[in-house]
Amino acid sequence: MDTEALRSFVRAAELGQFQHAADELGVTQQAVSKRIATLERELEVRLFTRTARGVELTLDGQAFLSHARSIVAGVERAINAVRPGSRALRIDVLGLRSAQAVVLHDYWRSRPEANLDVVTLRANDPRVVVAAVEAGDIDASFRTVIAPAVLPPDLQMIHAFDSPLELLVGPRHPLASARRLTPPQLHKHRIWVPGIAPRSEWAEFYDQLATDFDLRIDAAGPHFGDEVLLDTLAESADVATLVGARDRYIWPTNHDLRRIPIVNPTLAYPLSLILPRTNPHPELRGIINHLGTLPRLPDAVWRPSWATTPQRAESGESDIENAQRSRPRPR
């Protein structure tokens, strides 16, 4: 079905005259008449009756109008979605309170004209996220594929930033008064991280963290949400959890929870950015530039063995700088 004929039908119905519709659409009245005649033949019904003042919808025309409007509006939305400079950058984060979302918000505050669509795919399996980037459903994702060799050849994964971990405890916990902690001081304390999904990057992270520092990471039970986790910490004298230093958590004042930095070494959760190798969304250049300005962690840092880290190429360029050289696709 010809969408221009549908557009002509909708405007003629709304304006009541073929000539007015033609003037608005920038075509002749004859063109509008021909489009609507073709549409009537295709539908095998009369859509208009002529009156002294112009045209009026028939009963069939009235029934068809709302559907035609929906089709025309859908086509316009589709066109706007790919029109140069008009489509928002669709970028996936692990959660809207996560460090990635915080970093993106800081970027947007520095560039409020940036058109961002921050989404959460709710997918634990990184292969689902990779497929979404490859299909163009999203433009980029703050995820990590632990075995980069399995990435499709048209995608790349670069180091985004490292998120240092903090211990979060309630006021009755034995470590609550500490100003900072080292990993050995966490030994034998229960660190509750509910809802760790198998095959997810964070499952691999906590497995390696527990092994390397002989920590007691407890993933028992379903994750009923951050509020339940924070309530449990406030009431407990022996339960702690790990959170990212940039992650945003909000709790009642009477919870009196404590965020305690972990040092010597700093425990770093490595965050990567998966994006197309060629023709990335133009807005990604600004985000990658912003990532390059984030402060680096101190030298004494623990990362899992599979972490992506900033690498210096022979030319002296980092992986972020190399990603910036990818030619943006026109929009």
What does the average pLDDT come to? 87
Class by alpha and beta content: alpha/beta
Through-space gap between termini: 27 Å
Overall morphology: elongated
Give the biggest sheet.
7 strands, mixed
Number of domains: 3
CATH architecture of the largest domain: 3-Layer(aba) Sandwich
Radius of gyration: 28 Å
Which stretches are poorly predicted, pLDDT < 50 over at least 5 residues? 311-318, 326-331
Helix content: 25-40%
CATH superfamily descriptor of the largest domain: Periplasmic binding protein-like II
Total beta-strand segments: 12
Give helix and strand order, one letter per element, not per position. HHHEEHEHEHEEEHEHEEEHEH
Strand content: 15-25%
CATH class value of the largest domain: Alpha Beta
Supply the number of helical segments. 10
The CATH topology of the largest domain comes to D-Maltodextrin-Binding Protein, domain 2
Describe this structure as you would to a colleague.
With 331 residues, the protein is of the alpha/beta class. The protein folds into three domains: 80 residues, Winged helix-like DNA-binding domain superfamily/Winged helix DNA-binding domain (Arc Repressor Mutant, subunit A); 117 residues, Periplasmic binding protein-like II (D-Maltodextrin-Binding Protein, domain 2, 3-Layer(aba) Sandwich); 104 residues, D-Maltodextrin-Binding Protein, domain 2, CATH 3.40.190. It is 37% helix and 19% strand. Strands 6, 7, 8, 9, 10, 11 and 12 form a seven-stranded mixed sheet that branches. A three-stranded parallel sheet has the order 4-3-5, sandwiched between helices. Helix 9 links the parallel strand 11 and strand 12. The two termini are 27 Å apart. InterPro entries: LysR_HTH_N, LysR_subst-bd, WH-like_DNA-bd_sf, WH_DNA-bd_sf. Keywords: DNA-binding, Transcription, Transcription regulation.
